[in-house]
Amino acid sequence: MRISDVTRLSWDQVKRRKVVTGLCAAGISIGCAAIIVAMSIGESAQLYIEKQMNSYLNMDEITVTANSGPQTGGTASEAATDSTMQGKLTEQKLNIMKQMQHVAAASPYQQLNYMEMFTLDGMSSQYQTEVIGTDLEMLTAFGNIFIQGGPSNMEDAIVLNYGATLGLIEEETKAKLQEQLNADPYNEAVIQQYENTGKMPSVMYQKQIQFRYETEGGPVFSRPLRVIGVLKKPSGSSDVQLMYNKKGYVSLQTAARLKKDLKLAEDDQETYQSIIVKVDNQSKLEKVEKQIQKLSVTTQTNLYQKERLANEFKIIIIKAAALGIGVFILIIASISIVVAMTMSTYQRRRQIGIMKVLGANLGQIRNMFIVEAALLGLLGGLLGVLFSYWIVWGINGLIHQLSDEQDAVIIFIPLMTIPIGMAFALATGILSGIYPAISASRTDALTAIKRD
Amino acid sequence: MLRVEQLSHSFTNGIETTAVLHQISFQVQKGEMIALLGSSGSGKSTLLNLMAGLMKPTEGDIFIAGQNIVKMNENQLAEFRRSHIGFIFQAYELIANLTVRENVELPLVFQSVHPAARKKKALALLEQVGIPEKAEMFTSQLSGGQQQRVSIARSLITEPSVIFADEPTGNLDTKTEEEIIMILQQLNKTMDTTFIVVTHEQEVAARTEKIVTLRDGYLVTEQDQKRKQTHAGGLFHEN
Where does the record locate the signal sequence feature (chain B) (predicted)? Predict the structure, then answer.
């Protein structure tokens, strides 16, 4: 019997028996949708956690610092001529790192310190800002996006991240709030007000700012700096998280001048304090790290955090539990198919008998019923895919309604879950069809020609 | 062509055994059209079922086209029926969700014949039984007589060695009955197909070439209409 004929005859039955088809397909579709939605929730949660981890821990970056340990090998003259043999971070080493395979960007990185930032028009930041000396041209290579301005060679210029633009209030208001908080540290209303002002955004582009740094001899002030650029808010982070993450990026030359102004310890002008290396693929991080270590420098990554967090979140358990629920629903659905198809076999025994009299053998009758069950599974699977999109749409809507965060977890359906869901639905159909198919093939042909 | 030898059959309900056929023997030549005549309970339907391989006899053998179908298993019988046997039912037994043409093609579907080839054959047969214009209609749109014509066309599509017609006119009015008998006679002549017609009506049996009469499970007479010979108890004698 040709496959096209078996399929056509089976499809005719599926179309003809609308109620049975509807019930069976509905059962399978619920199970299939449960599997797809469950797997999607697992995948979405995993991606969300990875995104969060990358946002906080910069999992694709290597921090390279000078190696202060004892140096090995080579003579004094060799060491003097070949700076790569020394533990210091030189420009030559920076260039070597930039040329390495899988290195997306490498830039010097000098942390000055955390300081109080205020504008020349009397606004002051609630929390301290970290000032970093780096190559401003490389900021975009590290995944930063300018929403205002851009890198420039201008002297005494600064680029602020999104967090640094939050929580700038008038000095007087700030002092008053501080006073209230000190007087009544458990007053919810004051705490709330303090937090709300902390995430209030300000337009900082082209403003002039200054830093105040507390030393043993009293506060010292930096030279005025002009804000030449503001970076975009990182996706997946809320304002509450970012209001504590304030950064200001200056060129290495400006950093050197600020150190002088603020009486900070000055570095060797020929070398860098540290270099940040960004790799193009997180899986290549270890490989690149090993290559960098060959330059006699110290490296540090946050890769170990990934395993720690993965253990904490146990995504695999969430996925397995979700899959289990889906499979359980499919088993229930399969019982309904077995019952419906067995009843259908009984109702159609006369037709089966006629087919046997006309020459259909056991295998052909069996195949017709199995294909019919498979078609029910396929139909249920297709409906299940539609349902799953509908359910995910509903869940996302609910998340948006319940969460005030713009970047709340959004569930998406990964493409690979659709064939998995469909395969489960099809398998349920086929497995459920086996018993009714065998039962149908055993129908006595005589029933066809018996007259009541 | 078809030979029945010492065929006996009995049913048992676990307590007692009821014999329904006793030592039946007869043969049918290729291209013959015979009637199995008998009243209700005479055993004619049981004999038909046995000859069609739908039941196994208690004793005896049935040879069709030289093969003993009693020795065959279910799948071999299905294979044999597919190529050697055609059926015409009293209640037509057409499949409602298939069109007239698809119903006629059905036996060839089980033989994996190419759709184009079976369509051509089905249309030719529908032409022969006089309803070519009904090919794409559903069977529920046809009259009883037309449905029986479809059933006849379906029985012929595999070019079987023998066609069993079980009370083919039982559900029809007299005029339609006449038409169907004429079609069967015509096809018997033109296609040289053997027909075995089971009937309880003397008028229908009289239109065949030979009448095998059953009574209470015994073969009573075997009457050759052409040669006007009647055989009782195993011997023919001139009328």
Answer: none
Tens-level pLDDT at each residue, chain B (239 residues): 789 999 999 988 778 888 899 999 998 988 899 999 988 888 888 899 899 888 899 999 999 988 999 999 888 888 888 888 998 888 888 988 889 999 999 999 998 899 999 999 999 999 988 899 999 999 989 988 899 999 999 998 988 889 999 888 887 888 888 888 888 888 888 888 899 999 888 888 888 888 999 998 898 877 776 655 666 554 444 44
Provide φ and ψ at A118, rounded to 5°: -145, 155
Q: How close does chain B come to A357, measured CA to CA in Å?
A: 7
- Give the Å distances, CA to CA, from B122 to A84, A271, B148, B159, B184: 90, 93, 15, 12, 17
Buried b or exposed e, range A165-200, using 16+ CB within 10 angstroms: bbbbbeeeebeebeebeeeeeeeeebeeebeebbbe
d(CA A25, CA B161): 45
Residue A87: CB atoms within 10 Å: 16
Neighbours of B115 (CB within 10 A): 14
CA distances to A60, A278, B165 from A301, rounded to whole Å, are: 8, 11, 88
B72 touching A, CB under 8 A? no
> What domains are defined for chain B?
29-58+71-238 (3.40.50.300)
Q: How far apart are CA A116 and CA A385, in angstroms?
A: 54
Q: Report ipTM for this prediction.
A: 0.85
Q: Which residue of B has its CA nearest to A16?
A: B97
- How far apart are alpha carbons A159 and A139 in whole angstroms? 9
Residues 6+ apart with CB under 8 A from A329: A30, A31, A34
DSSP chain B: -EEEEEEEEEEE-SS-EEEEEEEEEEEE-TT-EEEEE--TTSSHHHHHHHHTTSS--SEEEEEETTEEGGG--HHHHHHHHHHHEEEE-TT----TTSBHHHHHHHHHHTTT--HHHHHHHHHHHHHHTT-GGGTTSBGGGS-HHHHHHHHHHHHHTT--SEEEEESTTTTS-HHHHHHHHHHHHHHHHHH--EEEEEES-HHHHTTSSEEEEEETTEEEEEEETTTTEEEETTEEEE-
Q: Where are the domains of chain A?
A: 3-54+313-449, 60-166+201-301
Instruction: Pick A342 or A223 by higher pLDDT.
Output: A223
A347 touches chain B (CB under 8 A): no
- Across the interface, do A12 and B90 touch by the CB < 8 Å criterion? no
User: In the structure encoding, which two tokens stand for residue A402, read together?
Assistant: 């319940």
Contacts of B57 in chain A (CB under 8 A): none
Chain A residues near residue B78 by CB distance under 8 angstroms:
356, 359-362
Please report the sign of the dihedral spanned by the C-alpha atoms of residue A388, residue A394, residue A398, residue A401. Answer: positive
Judge whether A362 is closer than 8 Å to chain B, CB to CB.
Answer: yes
The candidate with the shortest Cα–Cα distance to B86, out of B5, B191, B182, B181, is B191
Contacts of A182 (CB under 8 A, 6+ apart): none
Between CA B147 and CA B127 the distance in angstroms is 14
What is the DSSP pairing of strand B218-224 with strand B210-215? Answer: antiparallel
Residue range A361-395, pLDDT digits in tens: 889 999 998 999 899 999 999 999 999 999 999 98
- Record: contact B81-A351, CB cut-off 8 A: no
Chain B residues with beta carbon closer than 8 angstroms to that of A12: 97-98
**How close B162 gets to chain A, by Cα (Å)?**
13
Residue A451 half-sphere exposure toward CB, CA atoms < 13 A: 12
